[in-house]
Amino acid sequence: MMKKYVLATVLLGGFIGTLFLAAKYLGVEPDRLNYEYFPDMARNFAYKAQSPNPFFRNGRTEQRPVEGAIARGFMPLHYGLSEEEAKRAGRELRNPFKSDSTANLERGKRVYEIYCGTCHGAAGDGKGLVVQHGYPAPPSLLLENARAIEDGRMFYIITYGFKNMPAYGSQVAHDDRWYVINFIRQLQENQQ
């Protein structure tokens, strides 16, 4: 057993000594360019996006995404625009975020104030600022029928819109829609 440790120590010492000798004879000097192996790994030729590129079959640098690829930060929803699809979303979608998390509720409140409060009002009663200036009043989020809407269906409505409510899927991020739903549920609980 002791012979293995001695042998390992000798081999390691020899390897380290070889590195020092190689550095001395290969000229490792910090203020001078040293030897470089495989420089193409660090410095390669960069093609501009619209320039020709001989490495691809179609000769173009800019390539189409692979079939089925999803853009970063984009969460696709596979629902159509119909009442049946809204009901299906209500059955299938579940809120992945805790409703008792202070950080989630604060984020939901902030997003609600920016996007929802203008119509639905700060209290969720449907008396927002635009309603006071002639826009048709949305239903109160505090009524029993609004409380009965499943989280998944509410997510669908925020994403695709419903009746007079425009779609907010392109303005409100995927996770923020769930945070808003948690905040709306808190508003509803506070009104009981």
Could you characterize what this model shows?
The protein has 192 residues and is mostly helical. It folds into 2 domains: 1-64, no CATH class; 83-190, Cytochrome c-like domain (Cytochrome Bc1 Complex, Chain D, domain 2, Orthogonal Bundle), CATH 1.10.760.10. 44% of the residues lie in helices and 0% in strands.
Briefly summarize what is shown.
The protein has helices at residues 2-26, 83-92, 102-120, 144-147, 151-160, 174-190.
CATH topology of the largest domain: Cytochrome Bc1 Complex, Chain D, domain 2
Number of helices: 6
Total tally of structural domains: 2
Question: Globular, elongated, flat, extended or rod-shaped: what is the shape?
Answer: elongated
Which CATH first-tier class of the largest domain would you pick?
Mainly Alpha
Distance between the termini: 76 Å
User: How large is the share of residues in beta strands?
Assistant: under 5%
Number of strands: 0
Q: What's the average pLDDT?
A: 84
